[in-house]
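> example.struct
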């Protein structure tokens, strides 16, 4: 009888929220249940995972209050937030001290990117880099394909969510995935193997193998994407872990991914 797989040390992507939190006017869905920090931590404990990263959800825009309150109570957590590009240096420093490690950026599909070479955006990414924070991109397709090359000289570390949103057109042959691989090769860019349940199950192992081949395990982070918004009826935390074990079968690679995420978010 084989031993159970060793769980990751850290879950690098999950969301927490309550029904009291305000949805943005353009929220793509509006969960009618709570997934509070206590439930998330109980899930981590049940599966032997020590640390977690709360990821800002687009549903709530820049309402970061609940995540910040969770950070104040639980030192085993880190978080990303959503912020206005005009956020001042002092506020970024304060957020960093509270356990915020990055700013999540996403746009609706087909939306035009901001002026990435303009003063306002470059000031923002420079301030993030100065504060020791990263830019987290929840983009895919042409948006990601255009943004990553433009960020190459900004000096800020980048984390790309959800395999680079491979549900975009042309998948691994599309502009987003190709630009992501090129960015990883240049350095300062990491990719989350997360939300695989939103992608074709028969393709997941191939996606992971390609990323491992090009990026290596030290540039990849695993995240559960709990509580699986929009797919609650077909996903569970245990299934998210089982998917990781299936698509990254080498325990040594999984450990290196886990160690890399722990260094990135906590040290």
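> example.seq
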């Amino acid at each position: 009888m084989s031993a159970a797989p060793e769980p990751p040390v850290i879950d690098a992507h999950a969301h927490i929220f309550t029904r009291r939190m305000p949805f943005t006017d353009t929220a793509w869905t509006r969960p009618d249940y709570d997934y509070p920090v206590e439930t998330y931590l109980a899930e981590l404990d049940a599966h032997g995972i020590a640390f977690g990263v709360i990821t800002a959800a687009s549903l709530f825009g820049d309402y970061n209050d609940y995540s910040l309150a969770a950070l104040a109570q639980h030192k085993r957590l880190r978080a990303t937030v959503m912020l206005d590009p005009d956020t001042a240096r002092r506020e970024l420093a304060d957020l960093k001290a509270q356990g915020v490690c990055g700013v999540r950026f996403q746009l609706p599909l087909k939306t035009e990117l901001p002026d990435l070479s303009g003063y306002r955006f470059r000031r923002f990414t420079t301030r993030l880099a100065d504060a020791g924070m990263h830019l987290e991109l929840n983009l895919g397709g042409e948006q990601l394909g255009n943004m990553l090359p433009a960020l190459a000289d900004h000096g800020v570390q980048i984390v790309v969510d959800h395999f680079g949103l491979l549900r975009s057109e042309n998948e691994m042959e599309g502009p987003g995935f190709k630009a992501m691989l090129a960015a990883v090769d240049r350095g300062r860019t990491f990719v989350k193997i997360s939300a695989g349940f939103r992608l074709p199950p028969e393709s997941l192992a191939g996606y992971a193998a390609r990323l491992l081949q090009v990026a290596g395990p030290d540039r990849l982070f695993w995240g559960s994407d709990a509580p699986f918004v929009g797919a609650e009826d077909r996903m569970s935390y245990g299934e998210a872990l089982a998917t990781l074990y299936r698509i990254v079968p080498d325990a040594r690679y999984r450990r290196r991914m886990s160690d890399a995420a722990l260094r990135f978010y906590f040290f």
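> remarks
Residues 251-266 form the longest helix (16 residues).
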